[in-house]
Amino acid sequence: MGLFSSRSTSASLSIIAKGCRTIGNIESEQSIQVDGFVQGNIITDAEVIITPTGRVQGDIKARLVLINGLVEGTCQGGEVNIQPKGKFKGTMQTQQLTIEKGGLLIGENREIVEVEKVTKLSPNNQENEPKSKAS
């Protein structure tokens, strides 16, 4: 087998390596793993993984957020898991929050509430109804 495999993976992973410092926003359709430092916002349709050496100062928006390092800012995700070495400082908005033993949340968690759209019905106006002619 050569250096490059012909196999394709169904999901890609972008990694901010340990020792790497990134300043700016990151947007991706794929998963993002932070082993280094990010100062800025992270937005993805997939997962954001913060490892024990990872640190984020900014906002995170993702389907799934796994925090095992330090996050300072806001976090919005369908599911957020603060793992044993994870620490979150700020405001979180999620449908499902798990904090494992050793994990820490300093701030607040707001549940995502789905809002139903309400359409106001107007009363029947006789002007809009066809009028019959008297003979």
From TrEMBL:
PANTHER family on file: HYPOTHETICAL CYTOSOLIC PROTEIN, POLYMER-FORMING CYTOSKELETAL PROTEIN
Family to which this protein belongs: Belongs to the bactofilin family.
InterPro entries per UniProt: BacA/B
Protein name: Polymer-forming cytoskeletal family protein
